[in-house]
Amino acid sequence: MSEKIAFHRIYITFVEENYNNKMINLDKVKQDTGATIAILMDENGKLLDSTTTDYAENFALMAETAFSMCNDLLNDLKNSDLQQLIAKSDEHYFIINKLKSNSFLLITSSDLSKLGLLIKYMSSLNK
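The structure assignment produced for this chain is given below.
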């Protein structure tokens, strides 16, 4: 009986996480924010969904690694968990947001004037 209950818990958790992740329409994210790339990944860097882009699986894994390393640093310094990571180059920037479902959303843009909109949009995903 306990095996059946454990299976149902795992199944329910799997369904809830996938339902929460599928609620994010990446094409709509791009349309609403002007982002150039949107990638949804799990807590292990496994690609769940992406807009059309080459190397999405590599981006997902590298983004999760960067987020995890920064989270560990923040935990060591301030005993706090990282919720959002923003990086900027001369021409582009990206934002990685941790979602309630323990997945991550990465978006990129080259339009710096939309940075505030992207940050606000990403922050609203966890409300």
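Interim note for the steering committee: The first strand starts at residue 37 and ends at 41. Residues 56-78 form the longest helix (23 residues).
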